């Protein structure tokens, strides 16, 4: 773990550098959005993110990435990245070059390029498994909602804490067949459901500003890597998240063991998944409820990003204009 002096250096050196990483990644994916080819958009984004990370003055280790080394040529779990092989800051890195690959391929809303960086040992290393999650925004008693409680109990507890009837609560849930029973239970409790096709990182972040987003709680099963990245965002801006890994067959259980996870029944809190001095950044690939997408023209590219910092509690919304790009292509 970095000391206080190194933490200050983390801020000074990397405060905006990781936004440049997500911007380059989003631009690469945006050039292929709407083409119907998820693999091509992913590959372009991964290459761009890897290239940008390689130039940072860090000794970075990918703890959340594109899969195991045998599955991914770049940004695999355990890969070292950065230009600071001997003197750079030692950090953990979590990446999702295209959060919502299907969204990008179909030019649908809410595709993002996302990453988080933190002091070494601060981010949970997870394999590419599913994770059951529940999340709410800031301002509530710790453990107000719980993975082990029923949907009705969680919704009623949240409504009581907000001082509203449960009919004024809206739950964000991924639109998947596996969530049929959960959706029924939420509606039976009296709450509303906001279904999303992909993009559960943004779904979790939306719980932090329910007055603007209309989303009070996130519930359901999504990717474990996205769970850690969502926890990194909440570590910066406040809120609660719990997650439990899901491994339903022998290969998945072996993948968990290879990642050093021995207790698949463990319930991870936000601080288990992301702690310390975390920086989180995202850039829109397509227009969405969190960020605008990349705008491409002959000689100019516009991007819209957010960067959050846990130590300072700051959230910066950044609009960047790249000029004369045609001359550089």
Description:
With 329 residues, this protein is of the alpha+beta class. It has 2 domains: 4-122 and 278-328, Fructose-1,6-Bisphosphatase, Chain A, domain 1, CATH 3.30.540.10; 130-273, D-Maltodextrin-Binding Protein, domain 2 (3-Layer(aba) Sandwich), CATH 3.40.190.90. The chain is 33% helix and 27% strand. It has 12 helices and 14 strands. The strands form 2 sheets. Strands 1, 2, 3, 4, 11, 12, 13 and 14 form an 8-stranded mixed β-sheet that branches. It has a 6-stranded mixed β-sheet with strand order 7-6-8-5-9-10, with helices on both faces. Strand 12 (295-296) and strand 13 (300-309) form a beta hairpin. Helix 2 packs antiparallel against helix 3 (38-54) and helix 7 runs parallel beside helix 9. The radius of gyration is 19 Å and the shape is globular.
What's the structural blueprint in terms of helices and strands?
Elements: H1 4-14, H2 17-30, H3 38-54, E1 58-64, E2 80-81, E3 89-99, H4 101-105, E4 112-119, E5 130-136, H5 151-162, E6 170-174, H6 180-188, E7 192-196, H7 200-206, H8 210-213, E8 217-223, H9 224-237, E9 240-246, H10 250-258, E10 268-269, H11 270-273, E11 278-284, E12 295-296, E13 300-309, E14 314-323, H12 325-328
């Amino acid at each position: 773990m970095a000391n206080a002096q190194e933490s200050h250096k983390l801020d000074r050196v990397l405060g905006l550098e990781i936004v440049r990483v997500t911007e380059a990644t989003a631009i690469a994916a945006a050039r292929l959005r709407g083409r119907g080819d998820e693999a091509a958009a992913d590959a372009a984004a991964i290459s761009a993110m890897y290239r940008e990370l390689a130039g940072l003055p860090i000794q970075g280790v990918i703890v959340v990435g594109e899969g195991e080394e045998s599955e991914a040529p770049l940004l695999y779990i355990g890969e070292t990245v950065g230009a600071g092989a001997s003197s750079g800051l030692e950090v953990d890195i979590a990446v999702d070059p295209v959060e919502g690959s299907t969204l990008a391929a179909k030019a649908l809303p809410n595709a993002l390029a996302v990453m988080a960086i933190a002091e070494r040992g601060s981010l949970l290393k997870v394999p590419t498994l599913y994770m059951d999650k529940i999340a709410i925004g800031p301002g509530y008693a710790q453990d107000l909602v719980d993975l082990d409680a029923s949907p009705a109990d969680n919704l009623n507890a949240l409504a009581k804490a907000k001082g509203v009837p449960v009919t004024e609560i809206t739950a964000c849930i991924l639109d998947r067949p596996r969530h049929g029973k959960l959706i029924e239970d939420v509606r039976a409790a009296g709450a509303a459901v906001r279904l999303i096709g992909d993009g559960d990182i943004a779904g979790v972040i939306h719980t932090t500003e329910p007055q603007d987003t209309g989303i009070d709680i996130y519930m359901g099963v999504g990717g474990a890597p996205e769970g850690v990245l969502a926890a990194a965002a909440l570590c910066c801006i406040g809120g609660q998240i719990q997650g439990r890994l899901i491994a339903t067959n022998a290969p998945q259980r072996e993948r968990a063991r290879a990642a050093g996870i021995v207790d698949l029944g463990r319930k991870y809190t936000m601080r288990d998944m992301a702690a310390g001095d975390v920086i989180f950044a995202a850039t829109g690939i397509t227009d969405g409820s969190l960020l605008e997408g990349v705008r491409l023209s002959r000689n100019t590219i516009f991007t819209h990003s957010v960067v959050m910092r846990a130590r300072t509690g700051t959230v910066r919304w950044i609009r960047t204009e790249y000029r004369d790009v045609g001359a550089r292509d």
